[in-house]
Amino acid sequence: SKHIFLPALSLGGCHRSKQLLKHAVVCLGFLCVVLLAGNIGQFFFCNFNTVSTNLNSNSFYPFVGMLCPKKWTKFKTSCYFVSTERRNWTESRHACVDEGADLMIIDSHEEQVFVNRLLHKDQNAWIGLTDSVEDGVWMWLDGNTVTTTFWQAEQPNNYGGNQDCGELVQTQSGGEWNDDGCFSKQISICEK
Ligand SMILES: [Ca+2]
Ligand SMILES: [Ca+2]
Ligand SMILES: [Ca+2]
After folding, report:
1. Could you read off the pLDDT of 166-186 as tens digits, one per residue?
2. 115 C-alpha to center of ligand 1: Å?
3. How far is the CA of 161 from the centre of ligand 3 (A)?
């Protein structure tokens, strides 16, 4: 019986190792699928993050159906809020940041014309424009240099050597800019 038993045992061992190999192959295959899924997931996550970073810079509400919060007005991909409270430029900025926004950046004449309509006649409001880093070099809060400008005649004049913050002045023609003292308390326009 020993004679019959041994080959049977070795046959069983061979069968077991074949099964082990089969399991190993299945496991490897499964690992590959998991890794691939991980890679695909990472790809989408990274791309999504890039998109949301881009959105954060200036537009939180890019989709037509996306409504702005209460008291905010939508134009294209952004929401705007005109404060009623008067604050200096820095305080105004903080108030915007507290709402997940920042002082508005004017990217186009169209955008300015729209926001100009939110202001009362001759009203002036802080926007995200400053030359506090280097006098005379006007920058937007997102770090972009100012290319298209809508300065009032003879502005920016850095009056008294102390005007480093930009404001939008409501006009019938769609608004103009002036540089004013950053300490001046006035209303502001947030954008998100
Ligand atoms: Ca903008
Ligand atoms: Ca200045
Ligand atoms: Ca001025």
Report:
1. 999 999 999 999 999 999 999
2. 10
3. 10
**86-104, pLDDT tens digit by residue?**
999 999 999 999 999 999 9
Which pair of structure tokens corresponds to residue 10? Answer: 């070795």
**How far away, in angstroms, is 183 Cα from ligand 2 center?**
13
Q: Using one digit for the tens of pLDDT, what is the confidence trace for 9-18?
A: 444 455 667 7
Q: Is the dihedral of CA 85, 122, 73, 70 positive or negative?
A: positive
Instruction: Give the pTM.
Output: 0.69
For residue 165, how far is its CA from the centre of ligand 3 (angstroms)? 9
Q: Would you say how long the chain is, in residues?
A: 192
**Distance between Cα 111 and ligand 1 center (Å):** 7
Q: Which residues contact 187 (CB under 8 A, 6 or more apart)?
A: 82, 83, 84, 85, 86, 92, 123, 124, 125, 126
Kindly give the distance from the C-alpha atom of residue 126 to the centroid of ligand 2, in angstroms, as a whole number. Answer: 14
Give the Å distance between the CA of 89 and the centre of ligand 2: 13
| Torsion on CA atoms 85, 117, 176, 111, rounded to nearest 10 | 100
